[in-house]
Design brief:
It is a single chain. The protein is an alpha+beta fold and 290 residues long. The protein has three domains: 118 residues; 60 residues; 94 residues, no CATH class. It is 53% helix and 18% strand. The chain contains twelve helices and eight strands. A four-stranded antiparallel beta sheet has the order 1-2-3-4. It has a four-stranded mixed beta sheet with strand order 5-7-8-6, with helices on one face. Helix 3 runs antiparallel to helix 4. The protein is elongated, with a radius of gyration of 22 Å.
């Protein structure tokens, strides 16, 4: 097994055993609920688990979005079970399993592995890190709103018809919209192709940028005083610089304005989630490192 597959395989294993780690807490939570509530809850939980397992077993860009939307629900369910009176041992097991699988699903190795599943034969795709501003507010809020949609069927099962209908009618379209927004984060890649390197990022760029092999001087960690065009979206972590032998046009999206600005770049700054793997791939393809 390749080293880059170890973490994805561990994520699959933990997801597979998630019903065992969370089962007792969920059983305690639902033990004194009505049959309608138990049925709706179990259908939702088993359905989400099955969809997530399928997504992990069939890696693709879409699968990455699906499993990253579902995984944070696991520790939330454990917390709900704790509030609902589940035993301490059951809650600890559920919380440990939920947190572990969520951390792995959100990890860089799993992200790059999943997006590579959609790549063409000669491509090597590497996921780009999300802009830091999205990590502290928009992304957690999107997860919370999507999770809140699950309250709709539960309210209906409790015969809270008005509230249940409102949550379903309003929540489902909102959840679908938020999932589409989050999917854009799964479609941000640095891609090695036979002709060169492609930066595919609909969040920061208005158009995909292509750097031909003959245009690239070197690729490596960006110096502190780099004058390269920053297309990282202000992502945290190690930034790589792609130095160019000639300037290339780059069309940058203007966030919030729905417009684009054309720029000319002599170097590009990118923030892949696995910079070491990117440099290893560049070396294997004969690109000069800086």
């Amino acid at each position: 097994m390749a080293r880059r597959e170890l973490v994805p395989q561990l994520a699959r294993l933990l997801w597979l055993v998630l019903p065992a780690t969370m089962g007792f807490a969920i059983a305690d939570l639902l033990s004194d609920r009505s049959s309608a509530v138990r049925t709706v809850a179990l259908i939702g939980l088993w359905g989400g688990w099955a969809v997530g397992l399928t997504a992990l077993l069939v890696p693709s860009t879409l699968s990455l979005t699906v499993v990253r939307c579902l995984a944070p629900a696991a520790p939330v369910v454990a917390i709900i079970a704790a509030v609902g009176g589940a035993s301490a041992g059951a809650v600890v097991a559920a919380l440990a399993g939920g947190v572990a699988v969520t951390v792995l699903v959100l990890s860089a190795p799993v992200g790059s592995f999943m997006v590579q599943g959609s790549a063409y034969a000669e491509e090597a795709r590497f996921l780009l890190r999300p802009p830091s501003a999205l990590l502290f507010g928009p992304i957690p809020l999107a997860w919370a709103l999507m999770a809140a949609t699950a309250a709709g069927p539960m309210l209906l099962a409790c015969h809270e018809w008005a509230a249940g209908v409102i949550v379903c009618v309003v929540g489902l379209p909102v959840a679908a919209l938020l999932a589409r927004r989050l999917h854009r984060l799964s479609r941000r890649w640095l891609v090695f192709v036979p002709a060169g390197v492609v930066i595919h990022d609909q969040l920061v760029l208005a158009e995909t940028s292509m750097v031909r092999r003959t245009q690239m001087d070197l690729i490596g960690p960006a110096p502190f005083d780099s004058a390269g065009l920053d297309i990282t979206g202000a992502a945290a972590g190690l930034v790589l610089e792609i130095a160019l032998s000639e300037p290339i046009p780059v069309t940058v999206a203007e966030r919030g304005r729905g417009s684009a600005t054309g720029k000319v770049a002599r170097a590009l700054l990118v923030a892949p989630s696995q910079p070491g793997q990117v440099l290893a791939e560049a070396t294997s393809r004969g690109y000069p490192l800086g």
